[in-house]
Design a protein that fits this description.
The chain is α+β, with helices and mostly antiparallel strands. Helices cover 20% and strands 38% of the residues. It is built from four helices and 15 strands. The protein is elongated.
Amino acid sequence: FFFVSSPSLSCPRALARHSSFKSVYLSKDNLRMKTVLATRAVAIPDGVEVTLGCRKIKVKGPLGEIERDFKHISMDLRIVQGDVVEKGDPELKYVKVDLWFATRKQLACVRTVCSHIENMFIGVKQGFLYKLRFVYSHFPINVTMSGNNVEIRNFLGEKRVRKVALLPGVKYERSSDVKDEIQLSGIDIANVSLTAAKIQQMTNVRHKDLRKFLDGIYVAEKGAVPVVE
């Protein structure tokens, strides 16, 4: 913090004894250079409906509906025509993100929010697919589906049964053409990726040499579901 003193009172002890003096503190945040306006736009693809209100965005498409809340970020979200957006297509609609008087760290939120919105558009039109492969040297890993849980058995020969619950909207499938592979799919990339991460972290090797014990379940491939032409 910076301390602003009176011209007649320069000594800190004299300031403390002076009863009529009022101390004024200026935060470092108030002295940083800020960007007046940072803006970015995301085009709304065909076949996708977007509803905006109070920084809550709802996206509806052929595969389903996703809702996300951005109330924790102080920015403007609105739907505009393409002629308002710089280098935009007048025939398309855009989700425009505006951030006023932002610091350097706050500017990163603009691109982050746009990336989330783009992933929502891809999710409701194509969906996301994560492929996980089993890696083992001696004890074969056995993965089954029981109810809403993925159960992992015989990891490093252990009797313990590891269970991972599928998050809402995530589908489990065992690959028929590839040995020792499972597939996780869904329209919400956050739930699909988090479920894949939980399965991978559940088979982390502990208290052993990681250069020698490479057993586990690893994400081998990820991305949007390919469009069949």
